[in-house]
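Progress against Task 2.4 (sequence-to-structure conversion) is shown through the following example record, which the project officer requested during the mid-term review.
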Amino acid sequence: MKIIHLSDTHGYHRSITGLPQADVIVHSGDFTMAGDEKEALDFIEWFCDLDYPQKIFISGNHDECMYGSQVEGLDENVHYLCNSGIEIAGVKFYGVPMFMGDCITNRQSRFYSQIPSDTDVLITHSPAFGILDLDDSADEKYINYGSEELLARLPSLNIGLHLFGHIHRQHGILEKDGIIFSNGAIMNEDYSRINLPNVIEF
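Structure tokens generated for the chain above:
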């Protein structure tokens, strides 16, 4: 299965051209900048029109208008995952969004704990702690911004692929402990450049 992975397009989705062919395209959140409904609808319209057999997306911390939303009327091959999963050609995908209302409570940790152990491809907005999650802080030192709860959950899962974004500086792919980790952040750290989407053979 060939998977195209992108994330953190922040309203620049219509500037992305020349996407390669694949079986599945996945967007792991932050498709808006201001988090309003108009931005979200424009992204969903663009995403639905892409020429891929299967399309999956989740929400990120910028996509606040999606919090608690019931996304209805999507084409049969377009899947919005919100602490839910979908099986495609025998591959089990599961998506966990990142909303600030969940992060400041214990809900985000609870959602991570509910990831099914038989998941093949995990889609989150946040990286796991220490994996493609380095960014600078106010004092210009690099620190890890990934989730420690998510890192602790990984050993009990049987995943082969983890797709995420959030940290723009760490766009890329890393293989570690038998898992392919993909940070698909399309916009670079100062929003001056559009990165190429990650292409994964899974």
